[in-house]
Amino acid sequence: MRTMADNGMDFQIETDSLLGLSESGKLTPDSPRVLSILSSVLERSVQKNEKLLKKLKKKDTITIFHGSRAPTMSIGRYIDRILKYTCCGTPSLVVSYIYIERYLQKIDAYLTSLNVHRLLITSIMVAAKFTDAGCYNNSFYAKVGGVSTTEMNRMEIEFLFSLDFRLYVTADVFRAHRLQLEKEGLGENQTDLRAANKTRTKCLPQIAAYTCRAI
User: Fold this and answer.
1) In this prediction, what percent of the chain has a pLDDT beyond 90?
2) Which of 20, 43, 194, 214 suits a disulfide with 71, CB 3.0-4.6 Å?
3) How far apart are CA 204 and CA 183, in angstroms?
4) 107 lies in which domain range?
5) Is 213 inside any structural domain?
6) Is the dihedral of CA 190, 48, 110, 210 positive or negative?
7) Mean pLDDT of the chain, nearest integer
8) Is residue 143 in some structural domain?
9) Residue 193 belongs to a domain
């Protein structure tokens, strides 16, 4: 892995073991732990932020990632769809989570049901390009995410410039966020996505149609 190559095999094994991975760094069919933890953390963050905004009677910063209404597909199912077709490594998922935090802090915005889907498909694509040896192009991710290629390109550019192209993630930062995800995921009654993950034994070239119409 590019950003953590100098930390040795022990760190990678530790990370993979925590997140339920095979030695290849990919999600195993019977280990949906990382997906359920990440989706649970994001869902709770969205709920908390929307309650806070409502309580404060405050309007969030509108960005290119905002839609007029929330998509009908849940966060968990959306992440599962992305992983099902792209087979991106789990390091990409953790890094994408870090990127989303950086982006929201930079523009002083909140994660809500109106922007979480677009931020997910964009951050996962950018993270996969930076951490994975092989990666699909923007049009592929656009089809998986239910947006147009033009939108995907615009969101990637906006995301990168907002981050000042700061894509490097140190091992310490990665480890801290990995532990944060583990801590926040403990004790949660998370949805079992085991059945859905059984299809992820290999990348699927035929993408089932989906339109994220709200975004």
Assistant:
1) 34
2) 214
3) 32
4) 27-186
5) no
6) positive
7) 75
8) yes
9) no
Token pair of 180 as six digits: 């944060």
Euclidean distance between CA atoms 132 and 8, whole angstroms = 17
Judge contact between 119 and 152, C-beta under 8 A: no
Residue 201: HSE in the Cβ half-sphere, 13 Å Cα cutoff: 3
The pLDDT tens digits of the residues spanning 107-137 come to 988 999 999 999 999 999 999 988 775 678 8
Distance CA 99, CA 168 (A): 10
Which two structure tokens, joined as six digits, stand for 80? Answer: 């599962």
Q: How far apart are CA 164 and CA 51, in angstroms?
A: 30
62: nearest Cα among 146, 164, 143, 158: 158
The answer to whether residue 102 is domain-embedded is: yes
H or E element: which one contains 153?
helix 149-162
* The amino acid at 155: M
How many domains is the chain partitioned into structurally? 1
Detail the DSSP E strand segments found in 55-206: none
